[in-house]
């Protein structure tokens, strides 16, 4: 089947089904082979800008939208299925933009829209895409393996007492400060933490800094949407220069981490399970000390992907080490 995907998580899901799209979005970079495929989208935002500058650019594009679709390329690819999303019109091309583009085509592809807000939603979308692509059995098998990996983490943390669960705050943007929502609360709970700043399914949104100070997290993870570790390093003062940052329990106790928010946490696809496996040794290091070298993972779940599994250090690093990283950002050469 000729499939076009318009966001990275859809591309990763299609790849997990053993298929390769004929076209992808400008942001799609995993598995690595998709980087050479035709792109059907482009952004009006400078993705290498600072978090504050990107926020300003997004506001300036409110009337015209953040993304464009290359209708000519889309037509030439002759897609039978287009996978898009309706969750966020800033994070990726959304269903409305795709609908406008499809109206201009001489063909009538099926359009499948994902709108996940929980891990269950992500796994349901895996099966929906599998059915649409004629890979229903493969989708069920991949889901079973992913759920087994989730269960391995949850079994270790199931009996942790409330008082032994650290208060966790995960930032998915730094200027303005935004707390990660959607599936983040359940990932943190499964990893052995407490996440009272958002409930499962709640959207990410800006927060008053006083709310963060009052919550006083015991563990902070900074994973801005679309930012790899180098770009997070370049924007770290968005948080460290704020009044009261040094007084947070997490900062005083040295429990602040940076996570690759471009490839993990914010991509609602199969690798969301790797996010959980990376979170677990950060949230409960004593329980997962045998996993310090890398995520708790199963290569068979992605046997059509590059099976070189990431080390924990490539996914997340102590925040204090960000000062040692380069501050220039080139998204075109970023490694997934």
From TrEMBL:
SUPFAM superfamilies: Helical backbone' metal receptor
Domain of life: Archaea
Pfam families in the record: Peripla_BP_2
Start and end residues of each Fe/B12 periplasmic-binding domain: 2-287
Signal peptide: none
Protein name per UniProt: ABC-type Fe3+-hydroxamate transport system, periplasmic component
Species for this entry: Natrarchaeobaculum sulfurireducens
């Amino acid at each position: 089947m000729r499939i076009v995907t318009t966001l990275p998580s859809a591309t990763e899901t299609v790849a997990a089904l053993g298929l390769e799209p004929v076209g992808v979005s400008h942001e799609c970079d995993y598995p690595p082979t998709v980087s050479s495929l035709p792109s059907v989208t482009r952004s009006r935002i400078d993705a290498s800008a600072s978090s504050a500058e990107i926020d300003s650019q997004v506001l300036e594009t409110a009337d015209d939208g953040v993304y464009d679709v290359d209708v000519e390329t889309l037509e030439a690819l002759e897609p039978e299925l287009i996978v898009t999303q309706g969750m966020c019109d800033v994070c990726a091309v959304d269903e409305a933009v795709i609908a406008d583009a499809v109206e201009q085509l001489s063909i009538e592809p099926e359009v499948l829209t994902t709108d996940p807000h929980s891990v269950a939603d992500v796994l349901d979308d895996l099966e929906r895409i599998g059915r649409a692509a004629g890979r229903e059995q493969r989708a069920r098998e991949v889901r079973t393996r992913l759920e087994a990996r989730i269960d391995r983490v949850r079994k270790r943390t199931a009996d942790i007492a409330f008082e032994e669960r650290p208060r966790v705050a995960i930032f998915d943007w730094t200027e303005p400060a935004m707390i990660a929502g959607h599936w983040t609360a359940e990932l943190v709970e499964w990893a052995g933490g407490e996440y009272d700043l958002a409930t499962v399914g709640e959207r990410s949104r800006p927060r008053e800094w006083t709310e963060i100070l009052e919550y006083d997290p015991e563990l902070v993870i900074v994973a801005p949407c679309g930012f790899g570790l180098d770009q997070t390093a370049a924007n770290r003062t968005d948080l460290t220069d704020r009044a009261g940052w040094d007084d947070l329990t997490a900062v005083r106790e040295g429990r602040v981490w940076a996570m690759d928010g471009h490839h993990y946490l914010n991509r609602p696809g199969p690798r969301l399970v790797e996010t959980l496996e990376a979170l677990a040794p950060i949230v409960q290091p004593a329980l997962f000390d045998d996993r310090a070298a890398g995520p708790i993972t199963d290569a068979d779940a992605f046997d059509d992907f590059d099976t070189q599994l990431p080390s924990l250090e490539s996914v997340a690093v102590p925040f204090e080490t960000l000062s040692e990283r380069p501050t220039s950002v080139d998204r075109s050469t970023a490694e997934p």
